[in-house]
Amino acid sequence: MSNWLALVIGNSNLHWGLFKGEQLISAWDSTYVSETVVEKLARFRSPKNFPSEIHPEFESKLLPFITQTIPLLVASVVPEQTKIWQTYSNVHIITLEHIPFNRLYPSLGTDRILALWGAGENYGYPILVIDAGTALTFTSADNHYNLVGGAILPGFGLQLETLTRRTGMLPKVELPQQLPQRYALDTPTAIQSGVIYTLLAGIEDFICDWLSLFNDGKIVITGGDRNLLLKYLQSQKPEIAKLVKVEPHLIFWGVRCWKKELCL
Asked: Binding site for ATP: which residues?
């Protein structure tokens, strides 16, 4: 499998990685697609008929790497979207099988374990991965490939959105680029303060507890809010932020590990 695509189906978007062997050539996001788009990808022959739903600004430099029915490795947390991609003729759906960690449980998301695997192989074990996506997740493993465990809670954006949708008068609020005033004097800032400072306190607590268990443990942050989360940590807890690595492509490194494990 020389050139291949990794597709990670997340809770909000599709995340794409184009590989040449083990080298990641390009990474991008798109929205969910229909089965018709999958059929278009299977029939792709030139830039003119490459599905714009997958890559709206298809770059000609990628053309030599993408051919008709290019191998596609799919990791998904959305069963409805998984079914759509199963119709692609050269697809490999990633499951927990063949992932060499102990203590895995059936409902564990493949996205979490792949990100953990990718982090561990690149940064070493023991490893704690904080994924700041739609959900904020903590996933960890020791240096014997044992899953230590983790936690799941609503991410920054989901908490802000829930307050807007589930209350009568609270406004829609975006994440600020800088830490908000903790003791706010207006409602939007009060919402930002409540969500951000509470999540930061929880993240700090998990990191401190992790380091009490493994004083040589590594910590990596990934996910769509990764850079903003690190920025908040640098302002609020610079000593904690110095211990954290940021890596946007952890899950693609995990997909690459799965591919190598199966010798695809």
From this structure: 8-15, 134
- Partners of 3 in the β-ladder: 20
Q: What is the pLDDT of residues 80-126, one digit of tens each?
A: 899 999 988 889 999 998 899 999 999 999 999 999 999 999 999 99
Domain count, the chain: 2
Active site residues: 111
Enter the tokens of residue 1: 């499998």
Please indicate, yes or no, whether residues 215 and 246 belong to a single structural domain of this protein: yes
**pLDDT score for 182:** 97
List the alpha helices (DSSP H) in the chain.
35-42, 79-85, 110-123, 156-165, 187-213, 226-236, 238-241, 250-261
Question: Who's near 215: CB < 8 A, 6+ residues apart?
Answer: none
The whole-model pTM stands at 0.92
What are the residues facing 80 on neighbouring strands? none
The range of the structural domain enclosing residue 144 comes to: 111-250
Helix (H, G, I), strand (E, B) or coil at 199: helix
Quick: pLDDT tens for 124-158.
Answer: 999 999 999 999 999 999 999 999 999 999 999 99
Which residues lie closer than 8 Å to 79 by C-beta, 6 or more apart?
none
Which residue ranges are tagged as binding site for K(+)?
131
